[in-house]
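From the pipeline queue, job 12 of 40. The input is one protein chain; the requested action is below.

Action: predict structure.
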Amino acid sequence: MNVMKAMNADNNHYDRRPLADDVAGLVMTARGDRPATLVIRGGTLVNVASGELLQGMSIAVQGARIAYVGRDVSHTIGEHTLVIEAGGRYMAPGLLDGHCHIESSQMTVSSFAKAVLPRGTTGGFFDPHEMANVCGLEGVRLMLEEARMTPLAAYMQVPSCVPSAGPLLETSGAVLGPAEVAEAFTWGPDMIALGEVMNFPGVVYGDDQMLGEISATLRAGRVVDGHFTWPASDPRLPAYAAAGVTGDHECVTPEDVFERVRLGMYAMLRQGSAWQDVARTIRAHTEQGLDSRRIMLVTDDRSADSLVDEGHMDYVVRFAIEQGVKPITAFQMATINTAERFGVARDVGSITPGSYADIILLEGPLEQVKVHTTIAAGRVAAQGGSLKAEWPAFTYPSSIRQSVHVGRRLTPEDFVIAGPIESGMAEARAIQVVENQATTREARISVTIEGGAAKVDVAEGVCTIAVFERHRATGGSAAGFVTGLGLNVPAAIALTVAHDCHNLLVVGNDNQCMAEAANHVISSQGGIAVYTGDGKLTLLPLPVAGLMSDAPPEVVADQSRAINRALSEAGCTLNAALMTISLLALVVIPELRLSDQGLVSITAEGIQKVPLFLAGE
């Protein structure tokens, strides 16, 4: 790729001003009276607006926005114009992630941006509800401020469910309501939407707080994201839509996709690290002919090692194409469809005059989605897989970096589960893990009780799971059983990434290992630790809110791989085991979870606490 002219000295400045501020300059460049700052010449345009692949096209850019698209842009080239010869390569819009939790990458916004820009992601719609559950509105504001420093077109959502299911079921570090939602929308237009409304029963049955948050969102002219896990045939889905929810990523069957689109929603098809739904849900389009206009591709949650090893939205688009989606259609699902859903198609999602110059140049066939160059806001941000952009480091205050407050060291006795009888056998509920799915199953197991305490049956694959409140050192905790992890040697994992309240979650088959893992996480002020019976410790420090690292992406990815490797060596060979375990405390996804307040059942009838042992029910 031949760069003919040098860029101006301020090439690390990514200015995303409103279109109204740039109109005069764009028109001047388009008619040839002001030289373009950047020209990309002689490529094949992936026109997601018309659904065409147009050969021999060129693009002229003025500052952060596109001024001209056509076959001849010679009239826009001046002495200081940077000219990139595309050489027939595909020129596509920068990819957009329509539903993503940056915290799930275990990286801060800056580190996340460094990981995804070389992969062709130039923007996204990010729900920071992990940060909000730990650090409240201050944490959300800080993530927004950091995002504004990066080249990304980063749109933030206001978390809707903090905590996810209410203080009677779990303990979070903060509580957000309608007043906080309204305040956040005053921060700027890049506060784009209300984050996924996980308390869908509250919406359907008229919970004042949930309806108040939705009303505050609609009054601010923003949109509402959904999270509905009852079956697609459930007659309460239209009631949920009637509240103003217009997008939902909890689609796991083709029927889920159809029913949402029929109600006017956007169906977001998820391909994350642990929960991978696209292969099944995309059949609504590829096999059953559903119009793709309201279908979006999203990641929801992807770990650092997944981002570094497989990619981000480039991977998801490529995967959709492999499932039979036409390449141009797959690109639409990750660009213009997403932009239109959030009402920002004037700025992002297409290569059209007036839009931000978020452009990717691709090597090879379109279906390979092999990104060579990423241009963000009119500047070369990455090339040949290497990051070229630079921006100032962002520093989080000590209140965010000192967020783990358990109040004491834990001991093996903290993981002893009292039985309902002095000795004998008792029937208990257990969380059964389902590989590659966010959902769990409620299993029934027989537990041996000796001296009034339950004994974990390692041979049967049963582990102890415990959750300790870590925001205010209240001393609150609960314990239960989990199956399906596969641990076959004495081992435990402890983590402060425990969706959504992010209390201290500990899982293992040996109480001493559980205490050791937990104490290492506490002393590190957050993170993930695997400790095995032979004394081996594997640690991923996450000092920012106990959720994120500000280390380079490759470092975090290496540490994340080490955690998964340690789990695998201990017998847990689940795909994306770490992310799967981190969901075991998420009390809004069926069927059974554990919070710091106890065991929680999630069914079509609602969300409620249930006893661990079934005796007397």
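Job complete. Confidence is low (pLDDT under 50) at residues 1-12.
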